[in-house]
Amino acid sequence: MIGLIYFAVIVLANTVGSVSGIGGGVIIKPILDFIGFHTVTEISFYSTVAVFTMAITSTIRQVKARNNFNWKIIWWVCMGSVLGGILGNVVYEGFFKLFNDETTIQFIQIGVTVVSLLFAFLYTRFRFRALVLTTNFWYFSCGIFLGALASFLGIGGGPINVALLMFMFKLPIKKAALYSICIILFSQAAKLLAIFFSTGFSPYDLQMLLFIIPAAAIGGLLGTKVSHRISTQNVTGIFELVILIVLAINVYNGYQLL
After folding, report:
1. Global pTM value
2. Which CA distances in Å does 45 have to 72, 125, 157, 158, 206?
3. Which of 52, 109, 116, 212 could be disulfide-bonded to 160 (CB atoms 3.0-4.6 Å)?
4. What digits encode the pLDDT tens for the residues 75-120?
5. Contact residues for 142 (Cβ-Cβ < 8 A; gap 6+)
6. What is the distance, to the nearest Å, from the Cα of residue 108 to the centroid of all Cα atoms in its chain?
């Protein structure tokens, strides 16, 4: 039963995540936290696998559709996100050793997620004046920050990816969503490799992946198809609506931990 619940959650989350560029993890993790069937560490791992799978399927579809990517931005941001993904996992494990308490770690993750969501919502709603940074240094630095944040939170990237890309490089939301999915692909690959070479995958119930991986792939494919058929205004509306919903779930989860 729990596998079917996870399947439904992940299909829906990754469909919305692929359309808006938020990756799905920002929806998956708080909902699975709310369900409470697995530990924080297990949920973080399952969320990582889900958004990584979604990013693979979505990126392949986007490349086949021959979307006009700026490969220079993608290369430097994604390379930064690989390093950031590894650093984020190191920080997560460091916090876990420091506090040795899953509740504390979950509370920290919720706090950082809420701040990220508020920034993303306020930026897309009020459209603060964007920067126009064009050097490789800024592309790489942006990737490190986003990759580390995504890995630490276990959400793949979330709205902060799209908002920061729009803010730093003055990208339209649809283009930022495409690049966000690429960042998610590389940062989550780095995190999975870091897990493999540190603790390995044996601590996790890998049978759950029989539900998680197909659901994530279906969500990624559906999201890409929907993205091609809706307007920029609709993408922005979905983006902001999801932020508000997930913000409410995170605040509730945080309140439950008090």
Report:
1. 0.78
2. 30, 32, 14, 16, 10
3. 116
4. 899 899 888 888 888 888 888 888 887 788 888 888 888 888 888 8
5. 77, 80, 164, 165, 168, 169
6. 17
Tokens of 150: 């995504």
User: Which pair of tokens denotes residue 225?
Assistant: 């198809």
Query: Do 106 and 40 meet the contact criterion of CB atoms below 8 Å apart?
Result: yes
* pLDDT tens, residue by residue, 137-162: 999 999 999 888 877 876 656 678 88
Beta carbons of 147 and 84 less than 8 angstroms apart: yes
CA distance 180 to 183: 5
